[in-house]
């Protein structure tokens, strides 16, 4: 099948099709952004285990009667989290946490619908050839994997734990971030197709890719901090208590995954690396004489600085939910900007 860029006989139609695919990719990225934030709120409100079954089709409907609500609440009362943390919870209290988790799952279904239907239409028109086809294939695989990993994550908290396994939480977030970043990368590359690019050196392209990767890793470390509730310890900065490296950190081979102090230290350290990297990119771009490159790297440095400030404030103020969500939202914005910068700098995009 011909790609969008290989329709010389109908250039106007090709441009219109390219614009449609670009808007679709950005819409998918926007919905994933919202879904991740609702997922973050679900985690912060301890709501993620309120629905104890995975019903991909019928689960779209919430309880519709008093009997249905009582049955859902009874299912929740069978898991360890209820006995350990919410033994005094009323049905009204259960409804509050239920709606968070249900909303998160509903958004996941909406993302799937918004992705699949236009994708089939564009595919039938031969829009997904070459590099774009490979990126869409990657997104498709990640989106297919996401609900499976999501249920694997939830199931980890239904028997022997009072919360989901933090490494599964991190993987769940990273898959969503992968879809988000790939959609933005592809959309920016598609929007720039046929237009002259700034003559950035290969070094800037490599640096842009590396920066996006470091931010991606930082997202995973942030998920480990959330899963271990590591933001609720060592609420001091710049030191952790009275030391830069807490004494109990790195006590075992699995400490980066299992130990809250280690997770917080790793997250802090990589945050400094992200900010330093962003500032170095901005300084180098300022000397390049390329205005587009300079604007993008300055924006990345500004958002990275804001993200560090939000992280410090979230820690010092004992993780208030609005501030924690702002921290998560800014992290995704930074990653999205990093992927856009990478795509704009990469001549292969």
Account of the 3D structure:
With 349 residues, the chain is an all-alpha fold. The chain has 2 domains: 1-195; 198-349, no CATH class. 70% of the residues lie in helices and 0% in strands. It has 11 helices and no strands. It has helices at residues 11-44, 66-76, 80-85, 91-124, 130-155, 166-191, 202-227, 255-258, 260-286, 291-316, 321-345. α7 packs antiparallel against α9 and α7 runs antiparallel to α11 (321-345). The radius of gyration is 22 Å and the shape is flat. The protein starts with 10 loop residues before the first helix and ends with a helix. Mean pLDDT is 92; it is low at 1-10.
In short:
With 349 residues, the chain is mostly helical. Helices cover 70% and strands 0% of the residues. The chain folds into 2 domains: 1-195; 198-349, no CATH class.
List the helices and strands and how they pair.
Elements: H1 11-44, H2 66-76, H3 80-85, H4 91-124, H5 130-155, H6 166-191, H7 202-227, H8 255-258, H9 260-286, H10 291-316, H11 321-345
Helix pairs in contact: 1-4, 1-6, 1-11, 5-6, 6-7, 6-11, 7-9, 7-11, 9-10, 10-11
Keywords: Cell membrane, Heme biosynthesis, Iron, Membrane, Metal-binding, Oxidoreductase, Transmembrane, Transmembrane helix
Membrane topology: Multi-pass membrane protein
Family: Belongs to the COX15/CtaA family. Type 2 subfamily.
């Amino acid at each position: 099948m011909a790609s969008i860029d290989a329709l010389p006989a109908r250039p106007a139609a090709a441009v219109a099709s390219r614009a449609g695919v670009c808007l679709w990719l950005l819409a998918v990225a926007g919905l994933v952004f919202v879904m991740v934030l609702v997922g973050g709120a679900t985690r912060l409100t301890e709501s993620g285990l309120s629905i104890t079954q995975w019903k991909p089709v019928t689960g779209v409907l919430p309880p519709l009667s008093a009997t249905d609500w009582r049955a859902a609440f009874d299912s929740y009362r069978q898991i360890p989290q209820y006995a350990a943390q919410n033994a005094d919870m009323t049905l009204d209290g259960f409804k509050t946490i239920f709606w968070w988790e249900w909303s998160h799952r509903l958004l996941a279904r909406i993302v799937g619908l918004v992705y699949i239907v236009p994708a089939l239409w564009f595919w039938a028109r031969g829009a997904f050839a070459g590099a774009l086809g490979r990126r869409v294939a990657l997104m498709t695989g990640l989106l297919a994997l996401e609900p499976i990993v999501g249920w694997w994550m939830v199931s980890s908290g239904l028997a022997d734990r009072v919360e989901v396994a933090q490494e599964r939480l991190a993987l769940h977030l990273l898959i969503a971030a992968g879809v988000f970043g790939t959609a933005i990368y592809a959309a920016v590359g598609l929007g720039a197709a046929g237009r002259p690019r700034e003559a950035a050196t290969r070094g800037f392209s490599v640096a842009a890719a590396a920066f996006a990767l470091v931010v991606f890793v930082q997202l995973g470390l942030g998920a480990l901090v959330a899963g271990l509730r590591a933001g609720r310890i060592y609420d001091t900065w710049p030191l952790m208590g009275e030391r830069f490296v807490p004494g109990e950190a790195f006590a075992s081979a699995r400490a980066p995954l299992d130990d809250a102090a280690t997770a917080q230290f790793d997250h802090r350290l990589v945050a400094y690396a992200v900010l330093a990297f962003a500032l170095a990119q901005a300084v180098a771009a300022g000397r390049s004489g390329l205005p587009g490159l300079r604007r993008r790297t300055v924006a990345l440095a500004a958002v990275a600085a804001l993200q560090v400030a939000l992280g410090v404030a979230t820690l010092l103020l004992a993780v208030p939910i609005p501030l924690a969500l702002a921290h998560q939202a800014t992290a995704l914005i930074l990653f999205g900007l990093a992927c856009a910068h990478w795509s704009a700098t990469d001549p292969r995009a």
